[in-house]
Amino acid sequence: MRPVVLVVGHGSRDAPANEEFEQLVARYQARRPELELRYGYVELARPSLAEALADLPAGCDEVAVLPLFLFAAGHVKNDIPLALSAARKQRPEVRFRAARALGVHPDMVELVLARAEEALSLGDADARRTAVIMVGRGSSDPDANGDFCKLTRLVGEGRPFAWTVPSFISITRPRFEETLEFVARARPERLLVVPYLLFAGRLFNQLQDSVAEFRSRYPWIKTALAPPLGVHERLLKVLDERLDEARGGQRPLPCDNCQYRVSLPGRAENAGGLRALLWSLRHTFTHSQAAPHVHAHRPMAKHVLVCGNVDCAGRGSLGLVESLRRLLKDAGRERDVRVTVTSCMGRCGEGPTVAVYPDGIWYRGVRESDAAELVHEHLLADRLVARLVDNIMQ
């Protein structure tokens, strides 16, 4: 039997993005015919990672899991290890090895430059008058955001660009729109926007709209948008390296500067080794299955959860959080009505999503302009805002 490799993608609600991922898997299978390649998605598409692990061929004794993720953030540090832990219990005779994310790698830097060259042919003279904005997806994991900034620095290192600066689509700052305005004030002759995204999809379409709007306001700046990274020989080379590391037992999943193992400013409560990987899952479980229980925090009258994942954040959920907290503070209720930013709540495309517990009420499509009504009607007066209620709970 050929060695089995399970390639793991993020997954998208946009079918073309999933098709690009599957085309990459097919291209990689042709490159490595000695391997049996399979694939699965962490979310939003099928087969899921759990389904792919459960469907592994009988008789295989070793499986390498190859995450097609740019950096090691929550999915690589949490979801994949948790899925592998379950798979090991179900298939104890199989040795599961997990490869690292693509990460900061010289070939990824060269791939960025190749895509940049496709968008804008640059001689040295032109490059000195060109500002480059790298655009990352953005993560709640500071380690991943730091790696993106490091890669951005390597793209500009030793090259004659006027500026090479990082920005993010959502979750963290500096945001892309903010960076556009900041760079425009320096009056570059040319501007090159480089999306550090594997495939086209909603985020890339969002970038296209932002760049088009920027061109209309700053027509004197020659602005170009590079394509996503896509399938490329250099990307396949990095996959070879990551896979060979894992199969050789050389490199485990990374832990340096991981928020779950290193005490980072503002995130010290997350540190604690392997136990911390289960922190959010355990907290949710105890809330729903083991109440009443002892808490370190004071009892809450209501707990408001607001999705802070990429889709909802792009629709204004983080501004909504700030408004909710401000209004509760003005009402003197910030201590017993808490507002918490969560990871994906599974309602992508319908957000921002808000859940209020212990009421068990979910709202969707909640805008910052709805904050006052949500606070005064539901959180303070216990009257539902019917027009926003999500039927997921019905």
Describe the protein in words.
The protein is α/β, with parallel strands linked by helices and about 400 residues long. Helix content is about 40%, strand content about 15%. The protein has 14 helices and 12 strands. It has helices at about 15-30, 50-55, 75-90, 105-120, 125, 140-155, 175-185, 200-215, 235-245, 275, 280-290, 310-315, 315-330, 370-380, and strands spanning about 5-10, 35-40, 60-65, 95-100, 130-135, 165-170, 190-195, 220-225, 300-305, 335-340, 355, 360-365. The strands form 3 sheets. A 4-stranded parallel beta sheet has the order 2-1-3-4, sandwiched between helices. Strands 6-5-7-8 form a 4-stranded parallel beta sheet, sandwiched between helices. A 4-stranded mixed beta sheet has the order 10-9-11-12, covered by helices on one side. Helix 3 links the parallel strand 3 and strand 4. Helix 4 packs across helix 6 (about 140-155). The model is unreliable at about 270-295 (pLDDT under 50).
